[in-house]
Write a structure and sequence with these properties.
With 437 residues, this protein is mainly α. It has 8 helices and 2 strands, in the order βααβαααααα. The two termini are 138 Å apart. It comes from Thrips palmi.
Length: 437
Amino acid sequence: MSDGESYECYGEGDVDPDSPVQRRLHGDGRDGADGGRDANRSPPGLRRSTWQRTSLRRPPTSNPDSLPNRRWGSFRHAGKRAALGSNALARPPTFPCCSQLYRSSSFNSSGRSSTCDTADDLYSDASLEEDVLDLNHKVQMLQQQVGVLADNQTSTDERYTRAKQDNAALQARVLMLEEQLRETELRAEERLQDEQKRHRELMVRVEREKQLELENCAIRLQTAELEATTLREEGGRLRHQADQLRAEKHRVQDALVDAESALAALRDEMAQQKDDFRQREAEHQQREQLVEELSLELERQREAERAHRQSSRRPDQDSDNLAQVVALSAQLEHVREEARSLREANEELQALVLTRGVEEGRSLLTGSMGSSSLAAELEAMSQDESMDKSLDQSSVAKIRQALKEQQDMNTQLRQYIDGILINIIENYPELLEVRKP
């Protein structure tokens, strides 16, 4: 069978005595071919019902028992049919029609065995047994199908009951949700009214604040216009002051140029004085060296005189040595006097250089705006002087201290003047106005 299985069932009914089954049971002597054709025809005493269903489990095609429309008089699978016949005879039937067929088959086989009928009757009996087995198989399949249908009906009933319960629960939930929806709508309506009221109050407050803000903006605008006018006037005054300061700057720059030229001349003079000082220092060192040599020579002469006196030499020789010693002593005293005068002159020159440098530095610091650069140059000059071994370290330290004090004083004065000017500009700007005569 392809997609569906056809089933036939014969119900219980009256058996016609003229039926082929009865004739075979009573030993009707017809050939096997006629018997097979009569067996293929449906017994008139049985009610026949036919139906078709879609097969869920198709039987395997290798099973020879499930082959459709097998003829009773077929000689194929004779041995298997004999075995099936013996098994069917040994197993008691389970249905009335099967029991009747079993009794008829048993009676017929006993009659044939007793009378020793022909081989055609044996073949008819085997085909009849095969039909009985097919019917049994179909009945079992029907039982299984009925059981499946019963299970399906049970599951369908359970689903129907569950669906009814779910429907009742859902209806209750729908009622509850409808009640919640009504309550939500009422609350939303109340909230909407509250929001509308609050919005109206907010609009009134915003409008009032807007009016106040407009008034404040108008007042600030007037104030800003007055400030702008004042600032324009202040700008003109500041431009005039800027012109004055620019002219003062040019004047100070000219003074700075003059001061720088004076500083360059002072540096040249200082360098020349340094050279003179080095020369005098070299002469002083030479004279000191000469004094030391003369002192050594005098000591030698004195030792020689003492040795001569001890050796009791001639008096003329002693007088010569004494005269030589006196001359050397006078020369030594003269050299010492010159060294003392040179040292005093050196100190005077150093004091003169320091005094002149301090005076020039103070004049430059007080008379120009470029005092920081001049102070730096003086600092560099003082550093150059400190590198020179001929200058005294204490004098250089004093010069540096004086310059530092002067710079601090100038810085404090500038800060004080700037603070006074700022206070006057902020509080009393009319004091700085230039009145026309």
